[in-house]
Amino acid sequence: MFNQFIYQFIMKKCLLSLFCGLLTCYAFAQHSLTGKIMDRVNGEPLPGANIVVEGQNKGTVSASDGSFLLPGLPAQSLSLRITYVGYESQRVTLAIPHAGEVLVNLQPATLSAEEFIVAATRASETTPTTFKVVSKEELNRYNLGQDLPFLLNHTPSVVSHSDAGAGVGYTGLRIRGSDQTRINVTVNGIPLNDAESHGVFWVNMPDFASSVDNIQIQRGVGTSTNGAATFGASMNIQTDTKREEAYAETDNGYGSFNTRRHTIKAGTGMLDGKWAVDARLSQITSDGYIDRAFSDLRSYFVSAGHYGEKHVLKFNLFSGAEQTYQAWNGVPEHLLATNRTFNSYTYENETDNYQQDHYQLIYAGSLGSNWKANGALHYTYGRGYYEQFRPNDRLLRNYGISPIQIGNQLIERTDIIRRRWLDNDFYGGVFSLNYVSDDGRTDLTIGGGANRYDGDHFGEIIWMAVAGNTNIRDRYYDNVAVKDDRNIYAKLTQEVSENLYLFGDLQYRNVYYRFDGTNNDLRNISGMQDYGFFNPKLGFSYETAPGKTWYASYAIANREPVRRDFTDSPLTEIPRPERLGNLEAGIRVAKGDFQYNVNAYYMGYTDQLVLTGQLNDVGAYIRENVANSYRAGLELDGAYKVNSQWTLGGNIAFSRNKIQEFVAYYDIYTESGALAGQEAATYTDTDIAFSPSVVASAIVDYTPLPNLTFSLMNKYVGDQYLDNTQRDDRKLNAFWVSDTKLSYTIRPGFVKQIDFNLIVFNIFNRLYEPNGYTFSYFVPAEQAGGRTLVTENFYYPMAGTNLMGGISIKF
Description:
The longest helix is centred in the N-terminal third of the chain and has 28 residues, at 2-29. The protein is built from 5 helices and 44 strands. The model is unreliable at 1-28 (pLDDT under 50). 6% of the residues lie in helices and 58% in strands. By secondary structure, it is mostly beta strands. InterPro entries: Beta-barrel_TonB, Beta-barrel_TonB_sf, CarboxyPept-like_regulatory, Plug_dom, Plug_dom_sf, TonB-dep_rcpt-like.
């Protein structure tokens, strides 16, 4: 026993001595490296540059003065890889220990072939229009599974909304009060807006932000682009660009309302210096804040490219499939205080089901020293339906079914389950050629595109409580539409004197739209329309100092009516196209740790299309032209890096949005509930619906430790009216909502990086509604011959305090 005790004592002492010795050796073998990252051209520091020790899973970012510190380095030769947005990456090889400070001068990057893919439809620093570029890092800041409108919620003049109340499922945004149908969206220069409705359905692209490199948002008309008319703003999206090194990432998140997000990404890096393949697979599910408003979303993204010295050829394939329970009806105003999650739909399969596949073949390259070229072929295939249970409230003849005779009983109404389908193809090509003179003073771009939409709309009855003279899958309506959209543009930026640039942009757009068949109200809607639009733009920019640019421009845009304007209106009374004149003027300043933008705008509309309450010949509400309306405003946004720990940012927009004269139509009902006609009421100088006079955002970031960041995000939206009458009983109240985020990063040896993120939304549990709708009608009053105007408002409430957490692992 004693010998065993002595043996254990000696072994413990030996192991302890060995451990201390190894620890001492380890401590003596560790070294620190200091350095500074600078701009090679102007000698200014580059804060936020990424410095990575290759092969050792170590890294850091440069401070506000460009300095960096890398502790704990072993005594050996190693390579540092330094990257910074807008600059050529650089690799530095040195021996550790290293005497003195490492000075790295980065060269500003020239426009690469891959970046030129989106350059033709984008604004540059010398373009006289109002824009903001949202980087991948900014998108990732909030990306825990919500749709893109919510990731962009803190950009200037943006108001986002969600049917299900939590940012997953059917979502949308408005910019300067313009809804999604008036915002042009392109992906790699290829049109994304639905050709008929002009809308963008983000629910069909779940987790798309995880495959986005950057987004440029141009407010106002902006520069010429492809696809739907820019009538309030444009969003130009560039998908992920190549990575030099192989990688793998996984993102998993869980939050309130049983929201889950699972994403896997991987890429080969550059193979043989020429080839690269990237892929992503995602699934997002949520029960939603609103009752039964679940979402089951799946998507993937695959990109394969060949990268030569002067040419890039890429093939992108991405797809999204969604099933969502409908929450389209909103919550009646009288239930907001007692049942904010109310959903009028109760049928178990009252769902929307859709899949959309996108194929893109893209070329970009240099043709000699002065010319660059870009071309893309694309094809999008979309198909799906929404299913509805219709109770005993509609006549069978509304479905083309004769009354059913059973014995002595004539049945004219019965319960029905119907599906309304959309099966469409969208395909075409876009191109651009860019010429830059030898002295760089002349920059000319010629571009355009030709695209065709071929859509089939039809409805099926899949069940009836009492069978009639119809079979399952019989189509009770069926119509097709073909739309050709062609455009050509030329943009010229000319430096006429030192730092003074003149800009001109001329676009011609032709739209040919034909449709044939029976609409869902059983009317024949066959017809065609042909439009030709000339959209000129001109302006100037002047750089008074490095990083300080003044600009002003005037642009004209024209826009054709949307599908419902053709199908709901008699062909002889189709509304006129809309016209917009847009004046923009402002200043952009970027100086070290401080940057800001100030701009004023005026958007004057002729024949703007709005819902007035007017009925067509079968009782459907139609849109009508209003002669004169306008939006005018002042926007400010900026950011200031106070020091290595504190960063402040935000924006505020003040606007006035008016319709000169607006005529509203109100239905008149009898005591039996029959429609007896309509009454008109004229309103003057009223606010445009859904156009708040103030929209603001403020963000504070605090980084007490290099890998730990706390963020506080605040959003304020002023009063919004639900229609154009500016009545206080048809209004969305102003709201202020705050979110907070915690981010923590570690770099253990077994993986490259692990990020922990937690966002608490609506931390003060505000009750607010960013979206809704209204309608009003007359009913008989108690007194003989009297009438009462009844107004019914419906809202889409957002969730109270809720959270979403996630873990991202990079290999």
